[in-house]
Amino acid sequence: MKIAIAQINPIIGDLPGNAAKILCAAQKAATAGARLLLTPELSLCGYPPRDLLLNPSFVEAMHISLQQLVKDLPPNLAVLVGTVEENLQAQNNGEKPLFNSMALLDNGIKQVFHKRLLPTYDVFDECRYFEAGLQANYFTLDDIDIGVTICEDLWNDEEFWGKRSYTKNPIADLAILGVDFIVNLSASPYSVHKQQFRETMLRHSAVRFQQPLIYANQVGGNDDLIFDGRSFALNRQGELICRARGFETDLVIVEFDEVQRDLLPSTVVAEYESEDEEIWHALVLGVRDYAQKCRFSQVVLGLSGGIDSSLVAAIATAALGKENVFGVLMPSPYSSEHSITDALALGESLGIKTTTLPIGQLMQGYDNTLADLFAGTQFGLAEENIQSRIRGNLLMAIANKFGYLLLSTGNKSEMAVGYCTLYGDMNGGLAVIADVPKTRVYSICHWLNQEGGEGDKGRGGEKISSSSHKQIIPENVLTKAPSAELKPGQVDQDSLPPYEILDDILQRLIHNHQSAAQIVDAGHDTQIVDRVIQMVARAEFKRRQAPPGLKITDRAFGTGWRMPIASNWFAVKNTYQSKTIPIHN
Question: Which of 29, 130, 254, 279 has the fewest CB atoms lying closer than 10 Å?
């Protein structure tokens, strides 16, 4: 039996468009001789639909689209389609009104399977909408028993995690039933290291239960989430026999041998050579899909001559084409000459259109207006931030006038500690590198220069340079000290620890949930650690007002970050830390 994996890129809520993508994949699969087609979780409506699921007309329209798809599909091809089904018992027993389901279409709706494990961590909130399924899911097709799991259903192997589980393991339940192989239909968001983890986890399950496993994942950007695809399959021995492309749509075929009762080797797309290369392709996809799915064709951003705006401009150029990226230089009297020349050099390197709007006169206008009110005070943050807000207003005016999407250029290190200006450099419709630490920004830029903008090598992505030896990011951008240039001689390290130190502290605090004492024990200065922790806490109100930021780590300042603004925990936290009382963070 040939099984096709449709790694599609749905648009949330576009039921006709998503159905058309499933149908197109089905026609190709049928031509290739497939008997079964797999599509991702909630493939008909796109994942995550969030509160669209609270709208009864949306649910009804999904049912109508599913019925039409049944009529349109090629004969002799069974298709698993991600959809929702109403829970008819909900009103009687207080359950949630919907199930997260997979419908088996084979000349009609033959069976419907419900997701059993509903995630409620990080960006997931499925218990808000769905009731969990109770039954092990499988069906028989041409005398082959096929187990069905949906995304989270495969993430609960207690032996793999090394701890007791209080919920079922759907993979184990299907193995007990003796199915021939198991499919998993997923919408699993991207983060660094995620693919290696998925393959390791499923390899453990395949070997433990002697079960061939096929994993089908969604691809594409939806709001702050990026789905990397990279669907794959493992045989009974846990050997990787198939892997689809990363960060682009794909259709791959695997074959189940009924004599060997196992999956046969197929095409395995190579993994990325570095984390920087992988992150680059993730961000390019995130920008492209956010712009296109929000119906923008062109973007605008401020070019400061710094490394952050340089990287964002390069990403935008790869995502949308140089003709669709507009860079704006806005020098002030404090801007250095190299900031202007570096920004212009970057624009020339990328081939994008640029313009220069000096803000000196606008600054003077603010100074004149505020002169009486600010009389007798020292020049400080208020005056510095006016420069950033002038720039933010100019960029928003351009975006409004021409219908451009404004890209903000702040990195994760700055967002974490609040080294950014509300209604200034934080203005924008998308924060491209808001989940990329400053040290990683440098690393990606060095990789980009080495690759010369090609970076692809058959795994998806766009070339932004005509020569593999061309340096995209000007050398001076990579070597000069980072600076906001809001006062004479200013550099970031006037206000922040060196980024190598800051990023390590932030990694331990935000990702590893370490206490101040644990971070100090790792070798960091006590005063610096305490100061960084306080800065992170105080900046929460800024992050709450920031534009959506593309998520590339397991702990991003987005939909999965749910910290209170009015909180005093960080101030009193050390009270509970001692040598004798274990603190679990």
Answer: 130
Report the share of the chain in percent with pLDDT over 90: 85
Under 8 Å CB-to-CB from 87, ≥6 apart: which residues?
Answer: 95, 96, 97, 98, 99, 131
Q: Does a structural domain hold residue 564? A: no
Amino acid at 94: G
Q: The CATH number of the domain where 342 resides is what? A: 3.40.50.620
Residue 401, annotated ligand binder?
no
| The one catalytic residue among 21, 85, 115, 451 | 115
Res 10 pLDDT > 60 = yes
Question: Does 487 appear as a known binding residue?
Answer: no
Are residues 271 and 458 in contact, defined by beta-carbon separation less than 8 angstroms? Answer: no
Backbone angles phi, psi at 251, to 5 degrees: -135, 115
Q: Is 420 a catalytic residue?
A: no
Residue 205, judged by CB atoms within 10 A of its CB (0-12, 13-18, 19+), counts as buried
Q: Is the Cβ–Cβ distance between 325 and 354 less than 8 Å?
A: no
CB 232 within 8 A of CB 200: no
Determine the average pLDDT of the residues in 468-474: 77
Q: What is the pTM of this model?
A: 0.93
Beta-bridged to residue 80, according to DSSP, are 38, 104
Whether residues 350 and 218 share a domain: the answer is no
What 8-state DSSP symbol labels residue 324? G
Please check if 308 is assigned to a binding site.
yes
Parallel, antiparallel, or unpaired for β 299-302 and 405-408?
parallel
> Within 13 Å, how many C-alpha atoms sit on residue 546's CB side?
36
- Mark whether 52 and 35 lie in a shared domain: yes
**Do 188 and 214 reside in the same domain of the chain?**
yes
Out of 435, 463, 492, pick the residue that ends a domain.
492
pLDDT at 48 over 60: yes
Residue 180 annotated as part of some ligand binding site: no
Q: Is residue 579 situated within a structural domain? A: no
Number of domains in the chain: 2
Choosing from 45, 151, 242, 445, the catalytic residue is 151
Q: Which of the residues 21, 41, 45, 485 is marked catalytic?
A: 41
323 tagged catalytic: no
* Residue 304 assigned to a binding site: yes
Residue 558 lies in a domain: no
Token pair for 378: 């020292």
Any binding-site annotation on 470? no
> Domain check: are 250 and 148 in the same one?
yes
The reply to whether 286 sits in an annotated binding site is no
**Weakest mean pLDDT among 13-22, 159-168, 362-371, 457-466:** 457-466
Question: Cβ atoms within 10 A of the Cβ of 207, count?
Answer: 15
**What SS3 class is residue 361?**
helix
Please check whether residue 405 lies inside any domain of the structure: yes
Q: Tell me the per-residue pLDDT of 499-515, one tens digit each, with 9 for 90 and over.
A: 999 999 999 999 999 99
Same domain, 407 and 309: yes
For residue 188, say whether it is annotated as part of any ligand binding site: yes
Give the CATH number of the domain where residue 94 resides: 3.60.110.10
Is 115 part of the annotated catalytic residue set? yes
